[in-house]
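Re: the 395-residue chain
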Amino acid sequence: MTMNEINNQIKSILGQFDSSPSYFQLKQNLINSITKHLSSFDFDLSDYPLIEPTELYVRKSGGEITNSLYSFIDPGGNRVSLRPEFTTSVIRSYLEDKDQYSIPIKRQYVGPVFRYQPFFNQHSFRQFTQQGCELIGLDDINSDALILRLSLMGLAESGISSVVVKIGHVGFIRQILKKYDLTDAMELFVLSHLNDLADPGFPISDILDEAYNIGFISDNQTKKFNSVPNKKWTYDSVKATFKDRLSGNLGRRTHDQVIDRFLAKTAEDSITKDTFSSVLNDLSVFIIKNNFIVSEDISVESDLTVKTYINSILEEVGIIENLDVKYKVDFAIQRGLTYYTGLIFDLEGEGKWTGKTLGGGGRYDGLVKSMGNDINLPAIGFAMNIESILECVKN
């Protein structure tokens, strides 16, 4: 092959990987093992389209995932996206034929998903295989524990010897926010700073300054949009804080028009600095107080309701054979906070793979109604990244 031919060679897209025969067989063996495992708990294997309407994902995430979508206009003029996950397809499918099924609904799935990542490294996948399940119609602690246990048993099937489970509960966070009657925009702003609030050394005054510049805080409740301080800074701040939520289908509106409308509404609903400070302080105290490794350093100051819930669910989960599980309570988990309503958990590697996400899940009781159902219907599920798991197993 000449140098010119080498230069003209078409290579795979960054973040997409070929599977050699040996790797493909390894992956297929793991998938089959997890499928069999989920089937033993009566989860029916189903398949869903690779392409869905973009609106399906925007509605689910509140815009969170939109800057990761591979979206395009199809030849018929429809705005569609390669699926970034399965949950919305499972719910959409159920709603289209819900009269045919009785509650609870148990579905499992496996297949490729696509998520664009601007900052790419050798351990990143823009296409990867996601495997998991959804349980629709049950809202008790037993169903929470079942989903967490199934995810851990799936990891045990892979040969991974240890895992860290970061576990939280969005309901506790929202209970605190509910006391202050915040707008949706204010709640999103506060939730975007949970990691900062979990740091005892982080100056809350910095968050207050940002909230003031955006227009959430006012010493004068009649303040109008034109008096929002440093309007140019405000635009930049809103874009930075809500960049994921401004990256979707905005219709005919520009980003600046969306921000103008957002700020005008914000100025009308602004609250006092003391109130906003109380919100941040209450959350910070709660998150820091309830950050602990189960069985090692449960703080005597931890909330009794939190400890009771954690102890109850972990007692139901029980011991996972052939898997060393370390549970870390962490209410600063931010993944999917726009639609999760209860239990939320991340599965992470240990040792060389500390911090590497292998999967996760949680409860999303409001999603079914937001997608067109006439009533709320409880639902919970988990998903695992097969390639990430195999990367840990191989190394």
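The domain at 21-175+288-394 is CATH 3.30.930.10 (BirA Bifunctional Protein; domain 2).
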